[in-house]
Amino acid sequence: MSSSPSTAAGDGTPADLHATKHLSLPMSAGPARFFVLLAVFICASCGMVYELALVALGSYLLGDTIVQASIVLAVMVFAMGVGSLATKRLTEFAAFAFALIEAALGIIGGLSVILLYLAFAFADVYTVAMVALAFVIGALIGAEIPLLMELVQRIRAQKASSAVADLFAADYVGGLVGGLAFPFVLLPLFGLPGGALAVGITNTVVGILIVLWLFRAELRRRTQVLLAALLVLIVGLLTAVWVYIDDIEMTTRQRLYRDPIVLSQRTDYQEIVLTRQPKTHDTRLYLNGDLQFASADEYRYHESLVHPLMNGDRANVLVLGGGDGLAVREILKYPDVESVTLVDLDPRVLELARTSEHFTEFNENSLADPRVTTIAADAFTWLRETEHATAFDAIIADLPDPDDVATSKLYSIEFYGLISQVMAPQARLVVQAGSPYFAPQAYWGIGEAVAEAGLATTPYHVDVPSFGDWGYFLAADPNTVGRPRVSLPADAPEDLQYATAEVLAASTTFPPDRDRESVGDPQASTLLHPRVLEQERGAWVGY
User: Fold this and answer.
1) Is the pLDDT of residue 7 over 50?
2) Which pTM was predicted?
3) Do the beta carbons of residue 472 and residue 309 sit within 8 Å?
């Protein structure tokens, strides 16, 4: 298939471009076609990375991976159709148009993560910006295939079905490679913003160089110079941003937190941020932006979580979550505790809790105690797949709030069923269940999940200023222990700052507007029906 020569100004085609009937290539048609298909493969990999980067950033910042993925993918696929239709008028100067589109993809896709992070931190327009970027990137990706089809046919005409098959094969395989490279290569090596920048540079270089090399005969001299200059400009800009990415990220991140950041790290699982107030020295831990503890009042949370549980058998204690070591600190106040097994997802959190003075100052080096064993693993997987030689006498589920798919399974009937299988006959379980005031549907739904797993539950709640009204469920086997009482052990430490007998006695009373009856029929969450996600979405509205 050959194209008609373009005229200067008569048909609106730029005067410095001209398509030719007989394309002059720097090599034979076979190798030239191979390199075009290689460019398709690489550009498809880059496009997949842009999509995944938008989904990943949305998950980090807002949680709820399903919603973020659905919005990004739906908008991008729609935009790809729009972009494909829009390129019909560009096929006469396909080489130049393809180079410009790849240059635009490189700079917009490369900067997409940084631009969205800035929108989230400074303008509070994240969702609008995400949809806009997803549409623009999708439209540019959609514009690639019609232009590449034209270029392949100019090299060597063939049946349309064969050309489409070759292009789509290269495109789909490239998508596979990009999809696998994102979590296993780009994120570990460069991080999310650095990975997007690296792919943007690659996209720009491949897109422009393939045109300057194979299709230079279609371009006038000044157009070649223009593309070369554009290549240098975009690569230089993206490289400069990459050099200063840490400073940009730190400045932007600080905007999100009230107090100065003293530690910030991105792990394979989450973003860890620790802040410290200069005057009061209040230290706060955030994981993916969610507050985990404030040193000013964390004792209220952890005393209320741990000490009612310890009013019973407690030789062998299991802690699921709680990698900061603060719950373990309270457990170790009982000298008859023989062993504590702490299972937390992120090995970096466990390492910081053992070695960083920002943690050990508050957890009193609890993880260094010889009775404590730490395991870096997903709590659900560990319970399900690990052989447990002994049952546990006391179990704490101190897990992140269920605001995304990954954490919602940790509040399901199935999860509590797994916990019940490692409980000794007289064992007790305590579950942190969020706020009965701000998220009553989620709170009582979690209690229902524990109950449907076969355990008798007692709800209670306390005031933690940094969190608000915060609730728990104390649970046990109904046949051996019955409904457990929320009370202190007779040998409870005398230096407790909050969890007195009187406070705990009052903690089981709920006002009529926040008791179980106020939410009607609480719905338990399961693996196939993670209702707690929807319950969490409806929480905290107006606060």
Assistant:
1) no
2) 0.84
3) no
